[in-house]
Design goal:
Length: 210
């Protein structure tokens, strides 16, 4: 369920799934990250370049596919992270140092047809030292920024699925066609305590996928 904040640009997300009480998620039409520590805009990617363990400004973003360049809806037309033909896995985001993230957000789009701005069905998992600490089902629009605030995780896995039903199956090898741009790590401004709400449902944690 999405609840509009009075600011207008921010949507608070009460996501289905599980999370530690300290982890919150949001969507916005701009990045909310200040105190920037790491940033990836992918502008140096070349068409058909391998995306396995791609690194930029201390971030590592990985998929077992090659990059495919196209004009994703909601983006500015510059290069972004997109796996050609989609990927049979979630996109893996970590810090090269192996340290924990603080707050992170990223601009999202999708390769699903028809290629128009519309609802994206996102599934995200957050891990810390191999343990699942947060899981979110998020509905967003192409070009939105999706953020995770509160820290306590060192890995983000994220994907976009063709329908809500496919997303809700939480199948790690279902075809994912997410496009990512402008990944920012740092601190949410204003502070998450004033703007964000945690995921509401608490369920048993699952082991990290192999």
């Amino acid at each position: 369920m999405l609840n509009k904040c009075s600011i207008g640009t921010l949507v608070l997300v009460a996501s289905t799934g599980s999370a530690l009480a300290s982890i919150s998620t949001y969507t916005s039409d701009t990045s909310l990250i200040g105190g920037l520590t790491n940033f990836a805009d992918f502008n140096s990617l070349n068409n058909f370049q391998s995306l396995l363990n791609y690194q930029e400004d201390g971030l590592q973003i990985s998929a077992h596919r090659d990059y495919f360049s196209w004009n994703a809806p909601g983006f500015d037309g510059s290069e972004m992270f997109y796996a050609g033909t989609g990927s049979l896995e979630l996109i893996d985001i970590t810090l090269v140092s192996g340290d924990n993230f603080g707050d992170v957000d990223m601009q999202i789009s999708s390769g699903w047809s028809p290629i128009v701005t519309g609802t994206m069905y996102l599934w995200a998992q957050l891990y810390d030292d191999g343990n699942l600490v947060g899981e979110f089902d998020i509905d967003a629009q192409s070009g939105d920024y999706v953020g995770f605030a509160g820290g306590g995780y060192d890995q983000i896995l994220i994907g976009s699925y063709v329908t809500a039903d496919v997303r809700d199956s939480h199948d790690p090898i279902a075809r994912n066609a997410i496009a990512l741009d402008n990944i920012s790590a740092g601190t949410v401004v204003p502070a998450p305590a004033t703007l964000l709400v945690p995921a509401m449902a608490m369920i048993g944690m699952r082991r990290r996928r192999s």
